[in-house]
Specification:
The structure holds two protein chains of two kinds. Chain A is 18% helix and 21% strand. Chain A has two helices and three strands; from the N terminus they run E-E-H-E-H. In chain A, a hairpin with a 7-residue loop joins strand 1 and strand 2. The radius of gyration of chain B is 22 Å and the shape is globular. Classes of the chains: A alpha+beta, B mainly alpha. The interface between A and B is medium-sized, with 26 and 33 residues.
Amino acid sequence: MTEAREPLWEVFVRSKRGLSHNHVGSLHAPDAEMALRNARDVFTRRMEGVSIWVVPSAAITASSPEERDPFFEPAADKVYRHPTFYDIPKEVKQL
Amino acid sequence: MAASLSTEGLQQEFDRLVADDQRIEPRDWMPDDYRKTLVRQIAQHAHSEIIGMQPEGNWITRAPSLRRKAILMAKVQDEAGHGLYLYCAAETLGVDRGELIDLLHSGRQKYSSIFNYPTLTWADVGAIGWLVDGAAITNQIPLCRCSYGPYARAMVRVCKEESFHQRQGYELLYALTHGTDAQRAMAQDAVNRWWWPSLMMFGPPDTESTHTAQSMAWRIKRFSNDELRQRFVDMTVPQAEVLGVTLPDPVLRWNEDRRHYDFGECDWDELRRVVSGEGPCNRQRMEHHIAAHDEGAWVREAAAAYAAKHAAVDAAA
């Protein structure tokens, strides 16, 4: 017997107030409400979170790994965007 | 957009990432055999977590106190969660969970041979926690550094939760070995029956292990079966002394030259029999899983119908 496949959801958990939601994994569920309940049971059995987001995996647009080099290339040669690029006179105690 | 690299170039990039101890992620190119090996291993691991709920679930209704019952329920629930983490990790390789469950039911994918042994007494619950989960942790800790990202991440979560499993088992056995004579005898009997099957969990000896060399080259595995088995024995013998049980191996003794315990040979014929379906509980485990899956079909169908109905209402609104 083959059943219709339940959609896949990506799960994000905020571990405590003040921190952002982090991706923790994925799960199948027929709808968003069930996805939230399942996510609670699968990922927060030990108080790992105070808030959960579930997002349909199909709604995510991702950069492709094959495009990696050209896609991120503009950042590669701009070392002057880092504070360590600059020489500061030793006499300056704190900057 | 980058022109697509030749297979040779892709293979070189894959080899470089693995050699560099970086992680391979789902959308990276990977050799077909690497993908196949991972699907086989992760699916077998997921099936083991789910089938592993049965021997312990057997004792939930008969746990001797509310405390022990609550602990055992939490542990069995954890095993379900571990199965889900692992099925999701397998699915990132392009297989479907339903497909994997069909492969399990038709016997084309396996689960750990250890779960084909029966849990005859309450002490078996303790022996499983201490020895079976102890062996599983020994196996799983190096898998947290496995070259495939989703599998490694699932293992990190599993290992965190697994350590409670081993400790509750040890505590349970400790209560028995410090109880009445009958309780001590029950604990010893459970250890006698679970010791050798636990050693077999690490798989056949290195000389006969067909997948080890390639898996180590791919950094899926970090240590060989025999290395992990030795590590487990070295860790467990002192724990058995504190517990006050003997391990059923007449040649088990400390070897000062090797700085390891020497131990006897597993009955590899027994392992082969259990893996090929002739263990004490193989049929029972599979029948139970198929029945639970089939009997739960109406719940999945109802949830799907509810979701479809509400999607239609939302679309109309």
